[in-house]
Amino acid sequence: MTPRHIGEILKAVAAGRVSADAALVQLRDLPFHDLGFAKIDGHRMLRRGVPEVVFGQGKSVEQIVAIGKRIAAAGTTLIVTRLDPDKARAVKKKLRALTYHREAQLGTIVRERLKPAGHGTVMVISAGTSDIPVAEEAAICAELFGNRVRRLYDVGVAGIHRLTANLDDVKSASVLIVVAGMEGALPSVVAGLVDKPVIAVPTSVGYGTSLGGLAALLGMLNSCSSGVTVVNIDNGFGAALSATLINRTGLERRD
User: Pick from 163, 142, 112, 115: which is nearest to 246 by CA?
Assistant: First the structure.
């Protein structure tokens, strides 16, 4: 249930079009709806201004469908991360409205597209082409959370001139999400060149000693550039939410 939906119910009660009892029926699932195996947070949009996001990995098709139907029926946008192609095909057979973003392994049903807000643009930067799936998870989530988003991909430190050629665009962004695998050096470089928040996302891209992204994670945590914020390995969604909160801090939230 979104702030707009609750506002419509309250206005209808005030105007006498809906009884208090009928309104109570519509609001009864706040603050959560219990499916037995999952408790769907109907208050998330009210508290944080973004919908609850479903982590698809480890959930069965049946569980995702049941959760998805309930979220969509409430008029809230459904976002399912870590949804592999085989599982997505099975889910889509039962949730026909689902849009699957294959590169990001993200499933969505957009019930209410948020108007772009915030102080400015969130820019998503990837070090390499292999990092794009995680970068796209971040970019699509950031768009669905109501941000203006720009993308700058394959500008890693092995050819730093690719980044510096786009430096004016990079500096114009309000928040930067920088996605990198291997040694994870790119966020440090970007943070040393700009005066904007930098959110670093290590990816599991790399050869054996990258240790599934651990080398990039440790490199980012040990950055000598001050003020770099680091999220978990491959966590594009987490970076998008952090960027959203930073981008809209101090702004009045409007429905």
Answer: 142
Q: Using CB atoms within 10 A of its CB, is residue 217 exposed (0-12), middle (13-18) or buried (19+)?
A: buried
- Measure the CA–CA gap between 234 and 213, rounded to whole angstroms: 8
What is the reported pTM? Answer: 0.84
Q: What is the pLDDT of residues 171-187, one digit of tens each?
A: 999 999 999 999 999 99
Residue type, 210: S
What are the backbone angles phi and psi of residue 135, rounded to the nearest 5°? -60, -40
Degrees to nearest 5, angle at CA 193 with 190 and 194: 90
Give yes or no: residues 85 and 196 share one domain: no
Taking only the tens place, the pLDDT of each residue in 107-119 is: 999 887 878 888 8
Among residues 109, 136, 170, the one where a domain terminates is: 109
Assess whether pLDDT exceeds 50 at residue 89.
Answer: yes
